[in-house]
Write a structure and sequence with these properties.
The protein has 400 residues and is an alpha/beta fold. Helices cover 40% and strands 18% of the residues. The longest helix has 25 residues.
């Protein structure tokens, strides 16, 4: 399938299908990206790459400080994103100037990551996809869309914005109809997650398969074999027959809320709406013994890195029963998605049995500064406060 915009233009990656995903803020792009990752696609979020550049590129940091004032730069050199956002989201000219600074660096980074990946399908999420040259690298354009009231709800519930701030973000963008008019596929996200998934599955099937990569000319130089998995599967023993591992469903929300309350001694009290929004952004795997849910792990795979962001076990004895089964399923899926590593963020006050669970599974404590560049960026993006970073390497492929 080839976007009408790009008909006749030789694709940059003839052996891959590249989907450009766009849509206005809070229209469900992250949910579609998560579904794509579950299918084995390489998923690249341009906004996250922007954050990495603003956090790690001194030349870009200096240019932003010159353009928008020294107050947008922290003492350690990184950009104070809330301070910068307060400027650019109220001034269209300032926003355009910032984008002109960042877009070339973002495109270069995306091209590098796609070149390094063996994935046959690539999803590139970019809110300004259609306004720049990045769309020229895509075979097809998907757009997510929903009613403005749903955008406001999601920003207020999921990102904690007040109504005025949320409205400012929504109104700072062009009408959704402009993106919809240029889409090859439109996914409407006003309804339930199940309805969104049905639309995704139909659109995924329409992608077809990429053409085989051209056979290179003979060369005296030996080619590098595709990286093989370096990690041994964890917990080789069979899962007990009374243990089930499955994805959390909306109908599980009451039981999940109760388990979180019990596992944290009441310290973590998410609201139903907050949990539902969280379930749209990451996968929650449930481990249950007979009918009792005793383990919940929230995780996400993105850009070749899997991240375990939440883990709740109750009673603690389940750490040797359902928890290993859930962790093994996460690793199995991460291997299928050709992830390079699993990063786990373990609370500093995690009980010793939970720490032992990860140790037995082959996770090792690491400092983010020791990690390869892309892994380090993933950790910086996701690591909650008061957590330890544990890492299990699945494939040795990063060189930077």
């Amino acid at each position: 399938m080839r976007s009408s915009k790009n008909q006749g233009r030789p694709p940059r990656w003839p052996d891959k299908i590249v989907v450009g995903l766009t849509g206005n803020i809070a229209t469900g792009k992250s949910s579609v990206m998560r579904m794509a990752a579950e299918q084995g696609a390489l998923t690249l979020d341009a906004d996250k790459i922007v954050h990495e550049i603003m956090d790690g590129d001194p030349s870009v940091q200096a240019a932003i400080a010159v353009a928008f004032g020294a107050e947008v730069r922290k003492a350690d050199g990184r950009i104070d994103r809330p301070a910068l956002a307060a400027i650019v989201f109220s001034d269209p000219t300032a926003l355009r100037d910032l984008e002109m600074m960042l877009h070339p660096a973002v495109r270069t980074e995306i091209i590098q990551r796609v070149n390094e990946s063996q994935a046959q399908v690539v999803f590139i999420e970019a809110i300004k996809l259609l306004e720049g040259p990045l769309v020229d690298d895509c075979n097809v354009v998907w757009v997510t869309a929903c009613a403005p009231v749903r955008q406001l709800e999601r920003l207020m519930i999921c990102r904690g914005m007040d109504e005025e701030t949320a409205a400012l973000r929504v109104n700072a963008q062009p009408p959704q109809a402009e993106k919809v008019a240029r889409a090859d596929v439109v996914i409407h996200t006003d309804g339930t997650m199940a309805e969104t998934r049905l639309q995704f599955e139909a659109a995924w099937e329409s992608l077809g398969k990429p053409r085989p990569a051209p056979t290179p000319a003979p060369s005296a130089k030996a080619t590098q074999p595709r990286p093989e998995a370096t990690a041994k599967p964890i917990f080789p023993t069979e899962t007990p027959t009374n243990v089930t591992v499955r994805r959390a469903r909306p109908s599980d929300v009451p039981a999940v809320l109760l388990l979180i309350h019990k596992a944290t001694g009441g310290h973590v009290k998410p609201r139903r709406a907050e949990l539902l929004m969280s379930m749209s952004e990451r996968s929650y795997l449930i481990g249950q013994e007979e009918a009792e849910i005793t383990t919940i792990i929230g995780w996400v795979a993105d850009a070749g890195i899997a991240r375990i962001e939440q883990i709740y076990v109750h009673p603690l004895s389940a750490v040797t029963i359902t928890a290993p089964a859930v962790l093994a399923e996460i690793e199995r899926t991460a291997q299928e998605l050709i992830c390079e590593a699993i990063l786990a963020f373990l609370p500093q006050d995690a009980p010793d049995p939970v720490r032992q669970l990860f140790s037995v599974a082959g996770f090792q404590p690491r400092q983010s500064s020791e990690l390869p560049r892309v892994w380090r960026a993933a950790a910086a993006e996701s690591q909650p406060q008061d957590t330890h970073l544990l890492v299990k390497t699945l494939r040795d492929v990063r060189i930077a």
